[in-house]
Amino acid sequence: MGVGITRLGAGPNGETVTGDNDARAASCSSSSTGSRSRFPDPPAPPPPAPPYRFSGLMFGDFYYFSQDHDSTWENQQGFWFRRLYFTFDYTFTPNVSTRFRLEANSNGKLAGGSLTPYVKDAYLRLDFFTAGSS
User: Fold this and answer.
1) Which pTM does this prediction carry?
2) Helix H segments across the chain?
3) Scanning 7, 19, 45, 87, which has its CA 20 to 30 A from the CA of 55?
4) Chain Cα centroid distance, residue 98
């Protein structure tokens, strides 16, 4: 149950009127007195979230070498991806879910090259005991 609104003495003979929101309580009290004023219903609840979720996470840096003993790095600057994650989560039921995650790491040498992905997580999760069950 949500929040209820109670209006003491708002009924035709001083009765207490209760509604799930202020407009509905006023509507109940006015309809019982014979008035035809109608308040709109509250908005419908949002649709349920989908059972799947795609997400990603990226760690990166901006670097700048103003001076270096090696002339190759002198005044070099750029962006560098240290680590990337791509995750897919799927919930079959509240007690059964799964996750598949790819990770890609850089070699740490700022020398370029590709980030090769590998499987970081791939599992099926089963919750036999949920909160509130006896």
Assistant:
1) 0.55
2) 22-32
3) 45
4) 17
Q: Are strands 77-93 and 96-105 parallel, antiparallel or unpaired?
A: antiparallel
Q: Quick check: helix, strand or coil at residue 71?
A: coil
Contact (CB, 8 A) for 9 and 18: no
Sign of CA dihedral 19, 22, 28, 29: positive
Residues 16-73: tens digit of each pLDDT: 777 766 555 555 555 544 554 555 677 888 998 899 999 999 998 888 888 878 887 7
Delimit the domains of the chain by residue range.
1-45, 52-126
SS3 44: coil
| Token reading at 82 | 């240290």
